[in-house]
Structure formats: structure tokens, C-alpha cells
Amino acid sequence: MLLQPLPEPAAERAGVQLLLLRDDLTHPELPGNKWRKLKYNLREARRQGHHTLLTFGGAYSNHLAAVAAAGRLLGLRTVGVVRGEELAHRPLNPTLTQARADGMELHFLDRATYRRKQEPEVVAQLLQATGPAYVLPEGGSNALALPGCAELVTELRAHTAFDYLCVACGTGGTLAGLATGLQGPELALGFAALKGADFLRQDIDQLTQAATGRTYSNWELHTAYHGGGYAQLSPELRQFIQEFQARHGVLLDPVYTSKMLVGVLDLLAQGYFRPGSTVVAVHTGGLQAWAGFGGAPE
Q1: What region, left, alpha or beta, does residue 218 occupy, with left being phi > 0 and alpha being psi -120 to 50 degrees?
Q2: Where in the numbering of this chain does the Tryptophan synthase beta chain-like PALP domain appear (predicted)?
Q3: Of 112, 234, 267, 268, whose Cβ has the fewest other Cβ atoms within 10 Å?
Q4: Residue 184 falls inside a structural domain
Q5: Are 200 and 61 found together in one domain?
Q6: pLDDT tens profile 147-203
């Protein structure tokens, strides 16, 4: 585990130690929270005798890319159900092209049907078309995803004491898992990457309830740092990413971690964090997304 100090002026003025947890370096193809969320799901799929994984995602989904890579590495068949009509995704973007190259079969659902993807009849129709499969939800966020994310907290605590643990949020599974692994006064902060993400609070409570039988009060969700919406890369965010890379030698992804760090630095400037505290921000990977934005900054 690599913890990189971030000597940001905002942190120094606030009297706060700011660290970047480089979870993006855990595996070249399955970095960060994607592997953590898949770990126990893959074990359960094997236990149930499944040889196929079926899951869901948008056209630029890091989760689809990770499941496709996991399938190739582990010899599992993978099926990705993509939001939107097939013609709207032709030609395939780099994320879907790589997923297909990794062996993933792509099935496209119109947006109205996709919104019903959790309904039993929709899942049954998909399984009838694709054959028996272990079904993973969008983003990989279910009760079995949480223990893998909680392990990050245990690993981190073996390296340093901390007060705040910050992570980007898409479906809320990673934040929910971190919350279950915290102790004492430690607090997890989630930064939503999509607009209108207040619904995630209920989703996170449902995930922790399903995984541990209880809800938690040791986390907060911040929804003001979506940067215009999911997968929206504004000129301001691109500039932030370039300047962060120049200062720290670390490339951030354009969808998740970059927005989280914008939020962390803004909260530091506001005096949100307690003086003398240690704040750890998690780089969860997702760099493959740059292929869909014309490539990473030079």
C-alpha cells in the first residue's frame, strides 16, 4: 500500500495532513475498488458453480471494463448489459471496445428497460437470452462488495492512523464498505460523481443493512462536486487534473477521483476538517476512462 503525502497549500493552512492512498496501483487491469468489490462476488459465483458473469453499466463504465478483464484473467464468460440502444453506441467507444476484446458479450437495452434492470422479469428475460449466469448489479455494489472494501480500511490502519477517509461515489458501494470497516471516531466522506445523487444515501443504508444487519452514522455524502454530471469533463476539471499532475506526479481519472479531490481541497479551504487531523483520499483508479476523452493530458 502506497500512501503519498500531498503538500497542498490548503491543507497546510488548515493544519491538516493530507495523504493520497494509491489504490489505483493494486493491479494493472483491476485497480482499486473494482477488484475489492468483485473479490467476494467472484468467490460466490464459483461456489454456486457459475461460469458466466452478467452485469450492467453505461457506455463508459469502469465496472464493465473490470468485469471483462476479470473474466479474461479467470477464464469466465462475461456478459455486459449496456444502457442505451446499440445504434447509439456505434462505433463502440474505447471502453466497450476493450471490454469486447477481453471477451465480454455486449447486450444493449433501451433506457426505459434499463431503468427496470433490477426487476425479476427483466433479469429473467436476460438470463433466458444469455443462459445461466451469476448476476452482478451495476457498479458491482451489493452486500458481497462491502467486505472487500472494508479490507482497505484494515490495510490502511496498519500503515497510519487517520481521521477522515475520502472516496468518490458512483453507486455508493465503496463508501458503504468503508463505513463498515471504520472504528471509533473515524469518518468516511463520499463525493458523488453524478448529479442528483441524494438517493445514494438510502442506497448506502440498504447496502450496509444487507451486509451487516445495521446502518451506520460514520459517513457523509457530498453532492456538490459532480462537475456538471457523470462523465462530464469540464475545461475547469481538465485544468485541475493537469495542475494536480504537475504538482504531484499523479494522473487522476476524469470521472471519479478528480472530482473527489476537487471536493476535498474545497472543504479544506472552508475549514471543514479538524486542525491536526489526518485526511486520506483514495485514488480508486479508472484511468481507462481517459480513452473516451481523447486521451490523458500530456
Answers
A1: alpha
A2: 11-285
A3: 112
A4: yes
A5: no
A6: 999 999 999 999 999 999 999 999 999 999 999 999 999 999 999 999 999 999 999
Q: Which residues contact 253 (CB under 8 A, 6 or more apart)?
A: 285, 286, 287, 289, 290
Q: Are 290 and 254 within 8 A, CB to CB? A: yes
Strand order in the sheet with 52-57: 105-109, 77-83, 52-57, 134-135
CATH number, domain with residue 153 = 3.40.50.1100
Task: Specify the pTM.
Answer: 0.92
Q: Helix 62-74 crosses helix 32-47 at what angle (to 10 degrees)? A: 50
pLDDT band at 230 (very low <50, low <70, confident <90, very high): confident
**Within this chain, do residues 201 and 225 fall inside the same structural domain, yes or no?**
yes
* Strand residue runs (E) in 136-264: 164-169, 187-192, 219-222
Look up the domain containing 62 and give its range.
51-132
CA angle, corner 284, sides to 281 and 288, nearest 5?
Answer: 140
* Residue 36 resides in a domain: no
Instruction: Choose the final residue of a domain: 107, 132, 157.
Output: 132
Question: Distance (Å, rounded) from C-alpha 118 to C-alpha 138?
Answer: 9
Q: Which residues have CB under 8 Å from 70's CB, separation 6+?
A: 30, 35, 38, 42, 53, 76, 78
Strand partners, 278: 17
| C-alpha cell at position 117 | 434492470
Residue 139: DSSP 8-state: G
Closest CA to 133 of 71, 75, 76, 50: 50
Give the sheet arrangement for strand 187-192, strand by strand: 3-5, 17-21, 278-282, 164-169, 187-192, 219-222
